[in-house]
Amino acid sequence: MENKIFRKIKDKAKELKYNVAALFIAYKRKDVSLYAKVAIIITVGYALSPIDLIPDFIPVLGYLDDIIIVPLLVILSLKLIPKKIFEECKKEAKDLWKNGKPKKWYYGIPIILIWLLIIFIIIKNIFFK
User: Cα 32–33–37 angle (5° rounding)?
Assistant: First the structure.
């Protein structure tokens, strides 16, 4: 019984990983609405961000954002994308990690830079007023 639960969680996590990749592929398409693209950027940015709303080191609560917020953002984004388009993107996302990391893994660099800028501004305001 316990093994089934862990397998189910693992399968859901794997599906979530492919959904986030498919959302990023959908973001690059011209036939996706602006509202969907904004939701996708928020979703992918949050999913790839090294900084969470609730830090992971906080027991139980730390992983709640990964368990609740990311899937809710994915669901919101999926509601804004036509099903046919998302299915095409999902097929494309399945092959994304086939040969290791994606070819354009460096798309995450702007997200990291934005978070570093935010951290810098916070530290500057706290220690150098």
Answer: 80
Range picked from 25-39, 50-64, 88-102 for highest mean pLDDT? 25-39
Residues 6+ apart with CB under 8 A from 20: 43, 44, 47, 48, 70, 74
Phi, psi of 23 (to 5 degrees): -65, -40
Q: What is the residue type of 125? A: N
**The most confident of 10-19, 37-46, 62-71, by mean pLDDT:** 37-46
DSSP secondary structure string, 15-72? HHHHHHHHHHHHHT-TTS-HHHHHHHHHHHHHHH-SS-SS-TTSTTHHHHIIIIIHHH
Do 102 and 96 meet the contact criterion of CB atoms below 8 Å apart? yes
Residue 108: band (very low, low, confident or very high) from pLDDT cuts 50, 70, 90: low
pTM for this prediction? 0.65
CA 129 – CA 127 distance, rounded (Å): 6
C-alpha 82/C-alpha 120 separation (Å) is 39
